[in-house]
Amino acid sequence: MLRRVNPGLPRGGEVAFFEVSHSGETFKVNLRRTNAARRFTLRVRAPSGDVVLTMPARASLCDARSFAERHAAWIGMRLRRLPRRASFEPGELVPLRGVLHRVTSRRALRGSVWTEAPCATETGEPLPLLCVNAEPCFVARRVRDFLVAEARRDLEAAVERYARALGVRPRKVTLRDTRSRWGSCSSAGALSFCWRLVMAPSFVLDYLAAHEVAHLLHMNHSAAFWAAVSATCRDSARAEAWLQAHGASLHRFALESRGEDGRGSPGQAAGVGAAEAAATSSRRLR
Q: What pTM, to 2 d.p., does this model score?
């Protein structure tokens, strides 16, 4: 089935997506035409849980559909392997600095969100609590806001520490919900990070801070750049390995279990693209 966004649009914008089926399942395949593409490429993206077919600008829709249909079984397999979508609602397990916390709604006189010592679970394993002073319907938003605030605190402290060590000064530090990269550094010296890093172990966030601060000295990935990273952070390889193995799982959390938009804007800047690399599966046809 082909969907037209607007019949009056030129050929490049006519069709937004089509659907293919396999073994009783139907999959929506989003289309992306680009002059840079030389072949058809299928991607199943974990952060958004969608399927994207990138195609050459002059390729026909019939060929694109035929390619997707030939790989419909692969699409279904990759979609089934995606991490379960989760929310920040009461009862969910949410990682904070690499440690799982159980979200709970608890009315109290104290602050909006706080953590408490581990308590026994049904399996007998103690888990710390992430307590929210709000009605259940407001818990998810409060938890997300809390995580963003904690991420800002951790990242600003790490950036300041590494900037002082390298003798540089960033223009500003911003947080976004980016899906294509964990961090970036603009030519103007502005650093940007994905706030979801606060859910990863602390050494991962520290590495990303060191990585982007090093770009203030070298806007590339030269030997000099990596020497600057190694001089301030000894966990580079460990952090990269963690992101490769677990980075995609950080994007499964949303305000509601069915997901949210929050795409963010990665921009054109030197940065770490591990988020996209870890979260994307591709097939190409020469």
A: 0.70
